[in-house]
Design goal:
The protein is α/β, with parallel strands linked by helices. It folds into two domains: 230 residues, Aldolase class I (TIM Barrel, Alpha-Beta Barrel); 94 residues, no CATH class. The protein is built from twelve helices and 14 strands. The strands form three sheets. Strands 1-9-8-6-5-4-3-2 form an eight-stranded parallel sheet. The chain has a three-stranded antiparallel sheet with strand order 7-11-10, with no helix packed on it. A hairpin with a 2-residue loop joins strand 12 and strand 13. The two termini are 23 Å apart. The N terminus and C terminus are likely disordered.
Length: 346
């Protein structure tokens, strides 16, 4: 496929590994990264992921089949053991394998048994981590690539180091491709990542604010109006996840009521109060659920995920246009810096 970016299009080893044209990976955002968004990113030359955390295997099957009908490009399904009941996780993996899913993106805990299971089935594994130690464990478990998530990331944040500091530290200790993640949604971010040795960028916020994203338009518009300083890291949105699992969100009435005490909340002590609905499914205050197209209710009080790179997002555009802009800007920056080929920086 002609990637449409002309002479000097970016290509790194991760493109060969994953079967994409450019090293821009869609984050597997739960609820948000569904088939429309994953297909749009993949058809633009990037790499698509379905965010299927805690989803019923029936929904996973519908999403995978729709994605395969919309693109011939490879993709991954994102699953998260820490937030999923073991029997459901087992059923999710089994359904994915039955459907011929080619790759899995795994986040939070490193569970060697799960990695081994999908590897034995011939699948690729991209493991997202927040520490050097977790990267080591993921590599030992058989991961094919590491996604290094910095503290700047939106959504669930595993580590506490800045993204490029963590990426460089992991690169020093592994021969696997390392993909940078955390507040990186612009071409300048991609150019910097490649220049520091990363094999690409893993992007959430920039793709959440696209036409194909399954996020509610309210969430998208909040992103377009926000700046980096409007985000907070908190574990108050923790229902459905283990204690201490922090998220980065746009500040709202819930975080404003915390009096600056953003961390240290115990889910066992938080009230269960329904504030919104997805069909017949209630959405609770303090849950990790973000507002989707199908959500009605008090959207402002829900988790409005955003990374610290949100200031670069100023309009809702097609995902393909976002990929093209990101890649063109990165290419121009690298050329202006005298970089002649990707090999010189990766």
């Amino acid at each position: 496929m002609n990637d449409g970016y002309g002479e000097g299009a970016l290509r790194t080893p991760v493109c060969d590994l994953l079967g994409c044209d450019v090293p821009v990976l869609l984050a597997g955002m739960g609820g948000v990264s569904r088939w429309e968004l994953a297909a749009a990113v993949a058809n633009a030359g990037g790499y698509g992921m379905l965010g299927m955390v805690r989803e019923d295997p029936g929904l996973i099957e519908r999403e995978v089949r729709a994605l395969k009908a919309a693109t011939e490009r490879p993709f991954a399904v994102n699953l998260i053991q820490a937030a999923t009941e073991p029997a459901l996780l087992d059923a999710q993996i089994a359904r994915c394998l039955d459907l011929g899913v080619p790759a899995f993106s795994i986040f939070w805990d490193v569970v060697p048994e799960a990695v081994d299971r999908v590897k034995r089935a011939g699948c690729l594994v991209l493991h997202q981590v927040g520490t050097v130690e977790a990267a080591r464990l993921a590599e030992e478990a058989g991961a094919d690539a590491i996604i290094a998530q910095g503290i700047e990331a939106g959504g669930h944040v595993h580590g506490r180091r800045p993204v490029f500091e963590l990426t460089e530290a992991i690169l020093e200790r592994t021969g696997l491709p390392v993909i940078a993640s955390g507040g990186l949604g612009s071409g300048a971010d991609l150019a910097r990542a490649l220049s520091t040795g990363a094999a690409g960028n893993h992007c959430g916020t920039a793709f959440l604010a696209t036409e194909e994203s399954f996020a509610h338009r309210y969430h998208k518009e909040c992103l377009c109006a926000a700046a980096a300083g409007d985000t907070v890291l908190t574990d108050v949105f923790v229902l459905n996840w283990p204690k201490g699992a922090a998220v980065r969100v746009i500040a709202n009435s819930v975080t404003g009521a915390l009096g600056g005490r953003y961390l240290g909340h115990d889910p066992a002590l938080l009230p269960r109060e329904t504030i919104a609905w997805d069909g017949a499914q209630p959405r609770l205050r303090f849950s990790t659920d973000s507002p989707l197209r199908s959500t009605t209710g008090d959207l402002e009080a829900m988790a409005l995920y955003a990374g610290q790179g949100v200031g670069a997002v100023r309009e809702i555009v097609p995902a393909g246009a976002r990929v093209a802009e990101m890649v063109a800007q990165a290419r121009d920056i690298l050329r202006a810096g005298g970089v002649k080929s990707v090999e010189e920086i990766s």
